Amino acid sequence: MADLIVTQHGSEKEIKFASSTPAQREAAWRLNGVSWAPPMSLENYMAREVALSKTALSSQCNYYVLFNPADPEHIISSCEATAKTLLVRDASSSTPREEKAYAIASVYTNPTYRSHGMATRLLNSLKEAMDADSKASALYSDIGLTYYARLGWAVYPSLQVSLIPDDASVLRKPDGVRYLEESDVPAYCEKDVELLKKKLANLPEDGKTHVAFAPSAHQMLWHFTRDGFMAKQLAGREITHRGAATVDGKAWVYWDHDFREKKLKLLRVAGDPEADVTALLQAAVIEAAEWGLAKVLVWNPDEGVSASAKRVSDRTEGAVRVVFDERLDGSIPSLRWKGEGEVVWEDNEYYAWC
Question: What is the pTM of this model?
Answer without folding.
Answer: 0.94
